[in-house]
Amino acid sequence: MKYDIAIIGGGPAGYTAAEQAAKEGLSVVLYEKNALGGVCLNEGCIPTKTLLYSAKLYDSIKHASKYAVQAENPSFDLPKMIARKKKVVKKLTAGIRMKLTDCGVETVTGEAVIQGRTDDGTLAIACNDTAYQASHLLLCTGSEAIVPPIPGLSDTDFWTSREALKTKELPASLVIIGGGVIGMEFASFFNSLGAEVSVVEMTDKILGATDRELSGMLQAEYAKKGVKFYIGYKVTAVHGKEVTLEKDGEGLTLKGEKILLGTGRRPVVKGFGLETLGVELSRSGIQTNQYMQTSLPNVYACGDITGFSLLAHTASSEAETAVRHIAGKGGNGMSYKAIPGIVYTNPEIAGVGKTEEELQAAGIPCTVKKLPMAFSGRFAAENEGGNGLCKLIFSEDGTLVGAHILGNPASELIITAGIAIEKGMKAEELASFVFPHPTVGEIIKLTADN
Ligand SMILES: Cc1cc2nc3c(=O)[nH]c(=O)nc-3n(C[C@H](O)[C@H](O)[C@H](O)COP(=O)(O)OP(=O)(O)OC[C@H]3O[C@@H](n4cnc5c(N)ncnc54)[C@H](O)[C@@H]3O)c2cc1C
Question: Which pTM value belongs to this model?
Fold first, then answer.
């Protein structure tokens, strides 16, 4: 069996590549050892957002009186939330399977192992005791949770995001190790449902490279809601339900009925015969050029396996780039200038392009325009007492290079700024578009015009 393209991994990178390649008229085989949709659909983006929506609804009902609406004794049913999450995932994965079947992709359920590459470049892959050959190979094996070597951790019954998304019992207290995006989204979920949540972050701020001012505002918001933050603390040991921390030589012990790891993810580059090809690795994953080609011209890598962006929309965009290149359609390759990053807390943070801190660190001058979200009439109408900020960052010649928003629905607004960044727009051009009124998105025009 010889195909134009063999794809290992059926997550956003793999299934997007498979569909696009089939639409280009190429013969495609896609291997997936677990479930189509990968981490994103089965244990990442979609399950978290489904649960977070239930939590947000519950929060809104609890605070309905702010909007002159009375709701007596609101409650929630965690097992039913989990069941609904499963239903949403099932529907979406079935949709992907149908699309792939409709466009003629051969989908194989099983673990693929690369066998090698012949002198003419043909790639040999084995799956379920069947031998396959392909002219091109796409590596889309994704990433896995990092379990840090904290003394005592492996002896405890800790959660990663995978287990946390399945729990049918609300822990009374939860210690989250790692205040990145995943850690904060779970902090938001369990805090909304009433668990006592502590977040331990080793660096000097939550949310990694997210704009410092906005992440500080979000932290303050969650501190008001009762989340306890331990910033700059390193976890030194875990014993049963006790987590020992240290900062500047001072120790502290937290107790949590559950411990959740939000300590990052690393690319899956082992266990499927990659070493037989000898492709070059980078410090974080697989090295590629702008067309997602590895050091072997007919082997491509897309998505989390590159260790670069670890976002589903980057994965699918990289997959489209790779397939265009294989199909001889050229283009400029992958642009990372305007990849939005979202934190789906309540309120949300969305950012795209450069942050002030990043530019300052590189010694690049910039100007910043910012406005409170309440300058948008719609935001004021829908966010009683709500805080938020829109921040636009311009280079010396006035081109928009970054945009950062705290406030709902930041995730839905950020693409406007992303397009402006990708197109190299200046404030006047961005503000010259007609934004519908009243919308929260008007804040982008107002800030650009400010
Ligand atoms: C809790 C959580 C929340 C997230 N939320 C978001 C979000 O809101 N937005 C966002 O953009 N990103 C989010 N992400 C990240 C997102 O899930 C990933 O960036 C995305 O799934 C990467 O896609 P991928 O195709 O590279 O890899 P994956 O989705 O990891 O898919 C890789 C697939 O390859 C399969 N595979 C691996 N090896 C083999 C083999 N040898 N044979 C056959 N199959 C194999 C795996 O089973 C897996 O299904 C989240 C991640 C987590 C963990």
Answer: 0.97
